[in-house]
Amino acid sequence: MRMTDAATLGAVRITSDGYLVANVRTARIGTQDYFGAELDRPDLKTVTVYRDESEVFRKSSLDTFGMLPLTDDHPAEMVTADTARAVQIGMTNEEVLRDGEYLRIGIKLTDAATIRKVQDGKRELSVGYTSDIIWGDGVAPDGTAYHARQTNIVGNHIAIVDAGRAGPLARIGDSQPITAARWGASPITDERNVIMADAIQTRTVLIDGLSVITTDAGAQALEKLMKDMTSAEKKAKEEMDKKDAELAAKDAKIADMAKSILTDADLDAKVAARADLIGKAKAIAKDLATTGLSDVAIRKAAVVAVLGDAAIAGKSDAYVDARFDILSEDAAKGDTVADALKTGTKTVTDARAEYITSLRTAYLQPVGKGA
User: What's the whole-model pTM score?
Assistant: First the structure.
């Protein structure tokens, strides 16, 4: 028996090639009510039909919903290779997923005229399929009594319709008679729970260069999502910039450390300079202890050893360096008294003799004739 299920077109987007792409829920498990006349049971006012999940999600059934033709309204006959060229305006994709109680599948409209109709408000779907009806009373897992079960579900096409329960598929209960143009039985729907396509206000939102048709609420959600994503990207960039700055600082520090590493020649020069400084300090103050002292501390210690703390109190390092250099130069000249003592008493005696001789010459000269 030919059957239909209604579904509302979900959020859609327009590709760069102008195609309309959406993801929709189609057939579902559970019970649905039909008018008896539609199911060849005029003796029953309504018939409750149960679809078990083992039937809806049977692999052989799911496979028939992949790559289904899309049509603009239901065709009078089943879509086949012989009729597809005349009625097909798109196709479902290969992936058919379970979404709770529903089948979820992607669709792609490739006909510009039908896409314009969808943009103008024709955005409900009606799934055309065939199935077997197995009569027999039973109770569904939710406690609902049913009269028959649906099996061997085979998808044939998905139609874009003004409303899933109107147009060529006017739902059971209409005054329309059953005609050849009618594509099987549609479940009875409670009009109080149906949101007509015309009542849904839509907006087009531009996302990454793509136009997406959605409701006002959907547009607000998308705008918030984009704003949150922008904020997250900004924060991530700030974090990245901070890390880059830290790495740059570390690189600079490493470069400075590399500059401070001494070559063998530099090390030899520093050792020689240190030895020269200690030699000068020892010349100034023989018993001066220099171990563990910096160059500046050695100079200060040498000056203090000779001149005392008061000599450098409050003075700058440059002043201390100057005093140290003066003392070093004096030390290099030697101690004249010490040198005289080292050469013995001869130098002193000779000097004394010369002094006495000069005194005698000046004061003890004999009185000469004629004086």
Answer: 0.46
